[in-house]
Amino acid sequence: MARPFVVGNWKMHKTIAEARALAIAVRDGARAFPEIDVAVAPPFTALAAVAEVLKGSTIGLAAQTMHEATHGAYTGEIAPTMLRDLGCTHVILGHSERRHLFGETDINVMKKARAALDHGLVPILCVGETLQERETSRTFDVVERQAEHALRHITPQEAAGCVLAYEPVWAIGTGKTASPAQAQEVHAFLRKLVARSHGDSVARSIRVLYGGSVKPDNAASLISEPDVDGSLVGGACLETGSFLGIVQASRG
Ligand code: 13P
Questions:
Q1: What is the reported pLDDT for 248?
Q2: Helix or strand or coil: residue 252?
Q3: What is the pLDDT of residue 16?
Q4: pLDDT at 252
Q5: Which protein residues are within 6 Å of ligand 1, measured from CB?
Q6: Under a CB-based contact definition with an 8 Å cutoff, are residues 166 and 127 in contact?
Q7: Rounded to the nearest whole angstrom, what is the distance from the C-alpha of residue 234 to the centroid of ligand 1?
Q8: Out of 54, 99, 150, 187, which could bridge 227 as a Cys pair, Cβ 3.0 to 4.6 Å?
Q9: Cα–Cα nearest to 7, from 30, 29, 38
Q10: What are the beta bridge partners of residue 63?
Q11: Dihedral of CA 124/34/12/63: which sign?
């Protein structure tokens, strides 16, 4: 099995001072779990401060989104080159909040994924169905369309190092977690898709994270599923104890 990977998506939370304090606590606390890969995704405004804290550690630094162009007249946007300049290692792309609240499309995610890799950033590619899509039996169609676009212009060699994140929209911030069996079913489906498009060995190497109300008390049962390689954590990553609790529970 791939090394477990736990990513904290801080979303639109934390001032610079708060971000620095949380990053220090995560950095120091995660040393007790060297068998788990950990990354944090602070808001843009705190990336520089957190990069400073994480320098020399093994903790990854992710942005929460980016534009695909390297520069240009794109008011309010951030380029992959700028993220690299800040010390980012990863970027979350196609988060459901970006898709549903800010109109990000599959084509946007496809371009951004290519741009991330072109600039040395590991994309964390999010897919996931809404409650209505699940209830109308469209879960597999939706995640297939999203994952296929996200990986379309990525070579097998690159895809092996990418990260997929299955985040059912109905489980995000709702306290309603997908059951381990529900997560496993979609993760196995995603791995099969990757095997078809990029080959079996890529499907085995690519890490597939689960996101949606992951907490210290449900992380262990999720990670125990064969195709769940870790988690993308929202609410529970904002506090050191609960985030490290999830890291600890991910040892399997
Ligand atoms: P919650 O853990 O708050 O449900 O958020 C999940 C998420 O969206 C992580 O990207």
A1: 98
A2: coil
A3: 98
A4: 75
A5: 9, 95, 167, 172-173, 211-214, 232-236
A6: yes
A7: 3
A8: 187
A9: 38
A10: 91
A11: negative
Consecutive sets of 10 residues in the chain, 252 residues long: mean pLDDT of each? 94 98 98 98 98 98 98 98 98 98 98 98 98 97 98 98 98 92 98 98 98 97 97 98 98 84
225 is catalytic: no
Smallest CA-to-CA distance from 231 within 217, 239, 215, 109 is with: 215
Q: How far is the CA of 96 from the centre of ligand 1 (A)?
A: 10
Nearest protein CA to atom 5 of ligand 1, as residue? 234
d(CA 91, CA 130): 23
For residue 97, give both structure tokens: 């909040």
Q: Where are the alpha helices (DSSP H) in 39-79?
A: 44-54
CA-to-CA distance for 14 and 22, rounded, in angstroms? 9
- Alpha-carbon distances of 162 from 35, 69, 170, rounded to whole Å: 19, 20, 24
Containing H/E element for 37? strand 37-41
C-alpha span between 51 and 49 (Å, rounded): 5
CB 122 within 8 A of CB 129: no
Contacts of 13 (CB under 8 A, 6+ apart): 43, 238
SS3 content of the chain, % helix, strand, coil (to 5): 50, 15, 35
Q: Residue 228: which region, alpha, beta or left (left: phi > 0; alpha: psi -120 to 50)?
A: beta
What is the rounded radius of gyration, in angstroms, for the C-alpha atoms of the chain? 17
Q: How many DSSP H helices and E strands does the chain contain?
A: 12, 8
